[in-house]
Amino acid sequence: MTERAPDVPGTSGGPGVPEAPGVPDVHQGVDVLRVFRGPDGRYGNELGVVRDGGRVPGRAARQALAGKLGFSETVFVDDPERGHIDIYTPTTRLPFAGHPCVGAAWLLDLPELVTPAGVVAARHDGEFTWIAARARWAPARTLRAYASAAEVEALAVPPAGEWVYAWAWEDEAAGRVRARGFPGRNDGVAEDEATGAAALLLTHQLGRALNITQGRGSQILTAPGPGGLIEVGGRVALPGHPAL
Q1: Cα 156–99–205 angle (5° rounding)?
Q2: Which stretches of sequence are listed as region Disordered (predicted)?
Q3: Which segment of 27-36, 70-79, 88-97 scores lowest on mean pLDDT?
Q4: Model confidence over 17-40: pLDDT tens digits?
């Protein structure tokens, strides 16, 4: 059964996070999840979730807080019962992103989320949380194929200016992929540990289910679904929660 976080603010952004304009204390009320953990429970991409989005009203204040926290994305929950969420990188607002939706679906335990891009269906299957979304909702990514997983692992971080998702087959017959993500935004996130939107785009391009190992050892599962939807799934944890 999928473990859930308690209905109170959990792990904070940690000590030393500066205050954002209009926010009295950015440490409080920010849950920090790890989304797309590996099979051994390690790794996963950190995600900041502000469950009470009303405490940070307005795009400017939210963008400032996301920049101060410094995660690849931060989610603001505007309606925890209906699943309305608002997603920010350290430098921009996104209509949709994969790991924020998977993390928010796990934390809020809802059957769907409402994003500016559209309604994202969610489900829980054992230790995995899944979302269903459309490739056209995903931010643009350059999907760059390499001949081997070793080449992907040996890559240096490319210059800023282009969001690059580097990938190679580990086992094509089994659908196993090795990948790394380089946002190229020059915002302090040189490499993304696990990127759900890029995995969605790669699945759309290849037209098949994938088992992706990204970053240091995070795992993303994908599967094409009916009506052009693509499912993206993974394990989520709230570090420090006693049940984990």
Answers
A1: 70
A2: 1-25
A3: 27-36
A4: 344 445 445 557 899 999 999 999
State which residues form the domain around 142: 137-234
**Domain assignment of residue 82, yes or no:** no
Full-model pTM = 0.88
Q: Tell me, what CATH number does 224's domain have?
A: 3.10.310.10
CA 97/CA 37 separation, integer angstroms: 17
Tell me the Cα Rg of the chain: 17
> Which amino acid is present at 39?
P
Query: CA-to-CA distance for 79 and 56, rounded, in angstroms?
Result: 13
Cα-based torsion angle of the residue sequence 85, 235, 4, 18 in order, rounded to the nearest 10 degrees: -50
Q: Which two tokens stand for residue 230?
A: 């693509």
Residue 60 within any structural domain of the chain:
no
Confirm whether 151 is domain-assigned: yes
The SS3 call for residue 169 is strand
